[in-house]
Amino acid sequence: PLVLGIETSCDETGVGIVRGHTLLADAVASSVDEHARFGGVVPEVASRAHLEAMVPTVQRACETAGVALHDVDAIAVTAGPGLAGALLVGVASAKALALSLGKPLYGVNHLAAHVAVDQLEHGALPDPCLALLVSGGHSSLLRVDDVTERVTPLGSTIDDAAGEAFDKVARLLGLPFPGGPHIDRAARDGSSVYVDFPRGLTSRRDLERHRFDFSFSGLKTAVARWVEAREAAGEPVPVADVAASFQEAVCDVLTRKAIDAAAAEGIDDILIGGGVAANSRLRVLAEERAAQKGIRVRVPRPGLCTDNGAMVAALGAEMVARGRAPSALDLPADSSMSVELVQA
Ligand code: ATP
Ligand code: MG
Ligand code: FE
Questions:
Q1: Ligand 1 binding pocket includes 307 (Cβ within 6 Å)
Q2: Cβ(200)–Cβ(219) below 8 Å
Q3: Which helix (H) or strand (E) segment is 22 a member of?
């Protein structure tokens, strides 16, 4: 099926077009530069930017794909979770398209879409698979039995998301927003064992209650204290070494818990998605450690890891292919949509 997908849950206006597992267009307009001076995404700014970018981004996607709107078989849209006002722009636009074109509408879960996108790169998802989703707003381990209807959370962050930790630590180190890519780059010239930062929720006691949960706020505080102590002593902060040591602490915990979860569930395939999956160290460490356990790792290319419309189209196409009924045309945007609810 030819499906157009719309994503507006945060600061990216994404419109993707796919035919089955084939990516035809992935147009993304980001308002990230407008948020940079605030050091984080400002919801009102994001909503307005989506409104301005929507029509040109739909047009750009159609041009790239070489298809006309009336050719598509279905419209898919992120129904949640995300910023309420931002989601509303996408949902309203998708409804308008579906209604005017007379095509079915699929309101889908953003997290499931981050998983489904990998089909565009590596083909059909293995059922079941274990998904590690790490972005600016989420850090979750999910058991995925069927990405169109059965997704079960095994654990998630109890405080900051992994990407949020990257962004906050980058700020501490004087690196620009969003910080993930800058830390990744700075870390290449640093030592990952320079500082032994804490690994959240890995003590024996924590593992009893939070085996597959994450915590990154203690790590962020530890980095802040370390940097402050250096500055108080009048010594320069070795940015590359701190970046590498921080990154190692995050990637160590993420990979360890993902592999433990896969082993506990008897699953041989791990899929990593979300913006932090673009991290070069995470990709290498996950591969290395999983290989030792005979577990395969799939990570989409970085451009498909961060928010985009293709991931929504990919999930929509899978729903059409599996014969799922479309969503109602009055489907709501659901800012706190549960990960277990794949379709609105
Ligand atoms: P949501 O959480 O709702 O999906 P989001 O906009 O935060 O929204 P993404 O676009 O998937 O989600 O991810 C952005 C996050 O990914 C930011 O926190 C950014 O710092 C982080 N990120 C991007 N590239 C890298 C990288 N190479 N290393 C580490 N983090 C990265
Ligand atoms: Mg984003
Ligand atoms: Fe996302």
A1: yes
A2: yes
A3: strand 22-30
Establish whether the linkage from the previous residue to 81 is cis, with ω within 30° of 0.
Answer: yes
pLDDT (mean) for 294-300: 97
The ipTM, to two decimals, is: 0.97
Pocket mutation for ligand 1, best pick of 31, 135, 272 (most atoms within 8 Å of C-beta): 135
Strands 139-146 and 150-156: antiparallel
pTM: 0.95
For residue 166, report the distance from its CA to the centre of ligand 1, in Å.
9
**Residues lining ligand 3 (ion), CB within 5 A?**
135, 307
Q: Is 7 in the pocket of ligand 1 (CB under 6 A)?
A: no
Q: Which atom of ligand 1 is nearest to the CA of 12?
A: 6
Return the best residue to mutate from 9, 216, 272, 307 for the ligand 1 pocket (most ligand atoms within 8 A of CB): 307
Does the pLDDT value for residue 17 go beyond 90?
yes
Closest Cα partner for 117 from 339, 344, 335, 303?
303
Name the residue among 14, 97, 100 with its Cα closest to residue 54: 14
Distance CA(84)–CA(225), nearest Å, equals 35
Flag whether pLDDT at 38 surpasses 90. Answer: no
Residue 46 above 90 pLDDT? yes
Strand (E) or helix (H) holding 241: helix 239-265
Mean pLDDT for 225-250 is 97
Q: What DSSP letter does each residue of 211-236 carry, written as one string? A: TT-B--HHHHHHHHHHHHHHHHTTPP
Q: Ligand 3 centroid to 340 CA: how many Å? A: 16
With vertex at residue 63, the alpha carbon angle to CA 60 and CA 121, rounded to the nearest 5 degrees, is 85
∠ CA(1), CA(64), CA(283), 5° rounding? 80
pLDDT at 256 over 90: yes
What is the per-residue pLDDT for 265?
98
